[in-house]
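ping. complex inputs:
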Amino acid sequence: MARVDDVSGIRRILLQSRTIAVIGLSGNWYRPSFFAAKYMQDHGYRIVPVNPGYEEVLGQKCYPTLRDIPHQVDIVDCFRKSEDIPPIARDAVAIGAKVLWMQLGIRNDLAAKIALDAGLDVVMNRCVKIEHARILGGLNWAGVNTGIVSARRPG
Amino acid sequence: MADHEFGFDTLCLHAGHIPDAATGARALPIYQTTSFVFDSADHAASLFNLQTFGNVYSRISNPTVAALEERVAALEGGRAGLAAATGMAAQMLALLTLAQNGDHIVAARTLYGGTYSQFAVTFAQFGIATTFVDADDPETFRRAIQPNTKCIYAETIGNPQLNVLDIAAVAAIAHEAGVPLVIDNTLASPWLCRPIEHGADIVIHSVTKYLGGHGTTMGGILVESGKFDWGNGKFPQMTTPSRGYHGVIFHETFGDFGFTMKARMETMRTLGPTLSPLSAFLLLQGIETLHLRMPRHCESALAVAQHLSQHPAVAWVNYPGLAQSETRKLAERYLPRGAGGILTFGLKAGAHGGAAAGERFIEAAKMMSHLANVGDAKTLVIHPASTTHRQLDDAEQRAAGVLPEMIRLSVGLETLDDILWDIDQALARAQA
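pong. complex structure:
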């Protein structure tokens, strides 16, 4: 359980996780949170929307808070301002999530400490969609510098 | 644990290509296809909405071309790249993504002639104005900036003047004005200079030259640093919903590669100067030896420059690596591994005048190839006054840095003694 910022660590998280609760998921198709969640859903993950403003997003029941989710969650993916993350970290610990993931531009060391102390992995300032595409394939098709050098097939 | 950082030489060979997922092929497959099947109607919709990464049509993206894009982006230390049919096309894509009718560019006066014409003639027809300034004085860029200026444009090494730009000083001026610095790094190549490390925001290459390196294939690329703040208020096209994509906001959705995505999904998609997959493959073959070729180009060019400096038939030699070069200090700072493979020199007038001597020199060359290109593995020679700049009158030629007696050499990878032998015998016949 650690701060994870390297390719092998992020690959392990993405391969071991199946369910992603997306805090602040928008129902507008052109918003970044919708892009990311749709992408992960298309790649086989179960998306659990968390947003008091919706009943349903991406065909999935939407919950007002993390604590309302009645089943196991692997990754808690945060599309919220950095200063709003600590209470989400406490909720993530309370529901037994395995990873606290803060999206691009989001960092909060207090939230990270709360999660790390409870044994969660923590990812900060990275997009779950971009990391999936970077490490497991797809981002390279957009001409993006993935930083991946390998003599093995992707996956 | 931090990821291992691979060196430049390794990136020349590996960046952008891991073994093929389907076949395990170690060399880069050439995906010679116009189009790619959709898995389902929903997959197709996701692709057209930009919600998933993938290939639709090779005008927009192609896996072989993408390997080239990622490799050059990695070599430049950039975030993302977009390849194009030629360097001129890549530059057009970059600038038409930045500027539109009513906008303005500040550019160095000492630019490659094709670039000068693209700005002064073609972009002027689009309603984009350019002010050309003295690249050797960074303050002239500042003075030319207007409220509608969208970028500063210059070359690492000017062509054909071979003046080295003070990239950091010009970058600071651009950033104070809230606009990106766009640098054509063609003549240096990323082995000699990585402009992004000095503050450039977008780097352009004619991949045709040193990157490809073998004179076989045309290609161009733009590379985005990922560091420019497109949300500073000067680039509404990056921060307001796109008409071309039902409201996608490129800066918000794609973050630090939003500019490249916009250039690809709007400018490239609608104008279409695409690089072919076969060309991308050939150019990548060249890049695999960039780190081996560039030192040799530089060593031989320096030796040729020193040889010419001592030759009685030669009036002057211009090479940024020579001790007496006006641009030597900037060359030491920005090109510490070598001053490139290109030099110019002037013949003494002799009996027939400098221009005639220049033409006679070219006519006498036996191994050096007389053609209009640079950055080939072979040594190339041209007399600009009678070829590339022939349409200009004497005064215009001088303003462009072209003197009647000027010869431009692009020093290749042949045996150095053979290059010097050909130069010496051609000099003797030029003066005869």
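Chain A touches chain B at residues 5-9, 29-30, 32, 34-35, 38-39, 42, 104-105, 127, 130, 133, 137-155 (CB under 8 Å).
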